[in-house]
Amino acid sequence: MSLIILFTIFGNYYIQQISGWASPISISVILGLLFFIGIKMVIWIIKIYKFRTQLKLKALIPFIIYSITFLLIFISPNWLYADNYLSEIKYRGCYEGTINTGTIYFRESREFEYRHVGIFGFTKFVKGNWTKNGDTIIIKYENKTPKFVGDRLLMTETEFRYISNDTIDKKRTKFYRGYCKGLN
Question: pTM, whole model, 2 decimals?
């Protein structure tokens, strides 16, 4: 169980790429298993207290494994995420709508990622490559170009703006630069 949780957390970056309901399902699995392990830990604490005079190290191994799992997840989980082992993010942007959030990442390796999380955690993940020409970022997608982002963005000090036919479309989506602020 502990390994399933750790591998699922590590692989969440890849699970998000499946798009659709894969990410909310994996999060539900992780939370369910953590709840189950929490119950098992309470049972082990009661057993340890009841049989404290007769305990041997071998009997404590499950409790130790569960405790280490909780510590790895809740104290310092950064090493668990596959994102941390990819190329550094050079520019990042966020869009926060009423019931959705979109993030864009421009990596040092010239890889582009767009993650869109909608209602109930429904996820869309798109990848591609990017180049910069002055203040314009040009994106070449691996598959279909998402209308929400487009293939060209104007980069300013504070935001990324959608460019259509060499004009900035003020009615279209704009991403502010930096981390999401939790505004929605």
Answer: 0.69
